[in-house]
């Protein structure tokens, strides 16, 4: 076969690239050896969001008392809490229905209709210019590796001998884990821990460092408090010595603080959420003249590998493409590669302009530089904030935990934004435009936004840029002077 483009892997990255290429009537072959859609519907964003939505509904019922609404209540710590019955088997069915509904977009039939030639086989390089997919030899003008990643487990003594869940297997469980130990406090760990706690599991998170190490510390603190309020037990800076099977479940043995005895944590289930490994072993990359490291296929800013005709995108890409992985980062990279492959336009990936959202309650969203990153580059930055507590809509919804925080240079150019609070994942959108297009906070402050919305908190944060100006005696004198003219 001699297509123009051969894409390896039909996850978020590969599907995005293959369907966009086919839309331009470019001959494209897509090779996939597992389920269509990769981890995105089956063990990633869609399933996690669907499970999270169920957890959010359960919590909304519990907390409805604040709005004067009850559904059979009991007293917990002197607070009236509505009783919630969770039928976990039906929660599981809801998640599977959502996965099935979204899977239609990724189906072989849809791809065929779009003109994508799909080969269901494992792909591997046999030379710099040829990939084998089963017994098909494919010589394409361009290859795009989009083979994604899978959950990885740490080298923890005893872990290989205990049954554990991962973000791939959790969604097929039909009985609620009663006492869930979550190993790892990155995005996967905290999102799934909070969801399971809200669905009624007793949850402990065990994290080697601190929760969400890459997040703005102030924002992470708000989320940390929310996890504690949800009844989650946090073990941060924990050193796990071993995992063991015990009667009724699994035990993690944690090193005690200096001189103190080891600490034993028992659960009915263990979820390992300690990171992901790229799917690159089966590709025979060295035969293709392609370099890799522990993070995956090494690419430059143009997403090219050491072999000029081969690109890598999505979770399997390392080097200039590394950073928090997400479906939207994968889509963005697919668009860049297509521009280069079809139109020979020079492209440069810009990981800073890709937002990251942790879908907990409250959501934590960021784009561009964090305060810490910006301070490393320059001292001439301005930090602007607006708390949710001073937003009328947040008051109406009892959702006052959170803030908008902007990082700008001295002239107001937006370098980054972090939002923690209800709807942060939606509120970050205009800031993504601001960062990518080099807009200023003055541009954002000048927008007319609907009242009362959470978005107003963004505008108020931008407007606070003018606060020092308003206090300047010269400006006050100018206003006084102009008022004399009627
Ligand atoms: C719990 C969880 C929640 C998440 N939530 C979000 C979220 O809310 N928003 C977000 O944007 N991101 C989220 N992510 C991240 C997101 O799911 C991934 O970044 C994204 O799915 C990666 O897409 P991909 O195409 O690179 O890889 P994958 O989806 O892993 O797809 C790779 C495909 O390649 C195939 N493949 C591998 N090797 C070969 C081979 N040799 N030959 C042929 N085929 C091969 C695989 O079978 C697979 O289908 C989440 C991840 C997790 C774990
Ligand atoms: N909402 C989203 O977009 C979303 C959600 C989930 C995952 N993801 C992406 O998937 C990728 C993987 O995320 P992740 O959370 O699975 O991994 P991660 O690497 O981001 O976090 C893993 C955490 O586990 C901890 N850890 C590692 N070994 C440990 C041990 N032995 N004991 C205790 N703690 C240990 C680490 O300190 C780290 O905090 C990231 O790129 C992330 O951006 C995105």
UniProtKB/TrEMBL annotation:
<dbReference type="InterPro" id="IPR004099">
    <property type="entry name" value="Pyr_nucl-diS_OxRdtase_dimer"/>
</dbReference>
<keyword id="KW-0285">Flavoprotein</keyword>
<feature type="domain" description="FAD/NAD(P)-binding">
    <location>
        <begin position="4"/>
        <end position="334"/>
    </location>
</feature>
<keyword id="KW-0560">Oxidoreductase</keyword>
<dbReference type="Pfam" id="PF02852">
    <property type="entry name" value="Pyr_redox_dim"/>
</dbReference>
<dbReference type="Pfam" id="PF07992">
    <property type="entry name" value="Pyr_redox_2"/>
</dbReference>
<protein>
    <submittedName>
        <fullName>Dihydrolipoamide dehydrogenase</fullName>
    </submittedName>
</protein>
<dbReference type="GO" id="GO:0003955">
    <property type="term" value="F:NAD(P)H dehydrogenase (quinone) activity"/>
</dbReference>
<comment type="similarity">
    <text>Belongs to the class-I pyridine nucleotide-disulfide oxidoreductase family.</text>
</comment>
<keyword id="KW-0274">FAD</keyword>
<feature type="domain" description="Pyridine nucleotide-disulphide oxidoreductase dimerisation">
    <location>
        <begin position="354"/>
        <end position="461"/>
    </location>
</feature>
<feature type="binding site">
    <location>
        <position position="275"/>
    </location>
    <ligand>
        <name>NAD(+)</name>
    </ligand>
</feature>
<keyword id="KW-0520">NAD</keyword>
<feature type="binding site">
    <location>
        <position position="207"/>
    </location>
    <ligand>
        <name>NAD(+)</name>
    </ligand>
</feature>
<dbReference type="InterPro" id="IPR001100">
    <property type="entry name" value="Pyr_nuc-diS_OxRdtase"/>
</dbReference>
<feature type="binding site">
    <location>
        <begin position="147"/>
        <end position="149"/>
    </location>
    <ligand>
        <name>FAD</name>
    </ligand>
</feature>
<feature type="binding site">
    <location>
        <begin position="184"/>
        <end position="191"/>
    </location>
    <ligand>
        <name>NAD(+)</name>
    </ligand>
</feature>
<dbReference type="InterPro" id="IPR023753">
    <property type="entry name" value="FAD/NAD-binding_dom"/>
</dbReference>
<dbReference type="InterPro" id="IPR036188">
    <property type="entry name" value="FAD/NAD-bd_sf"/>
</dbReference>
<dbReference type="GO" id="GO:0050660">
    <property type="term" value="F:flavin adenine dinucleotide binding"/>
</dbReference>
<keyword id="KW-0547">Nucleotide-binding</keyword>
<feature type="binding site">
    <location>
        <position position="315"/>
    </location>
    <ligand>
        <name>FAD</name>
    </ligand>
</feature>
<dbReference type="InterPro" id="IPR016156">
    <property type="entry name" value="FAD/NAD-linked_Rdtase_dimer_sf"/>
</dbReference>
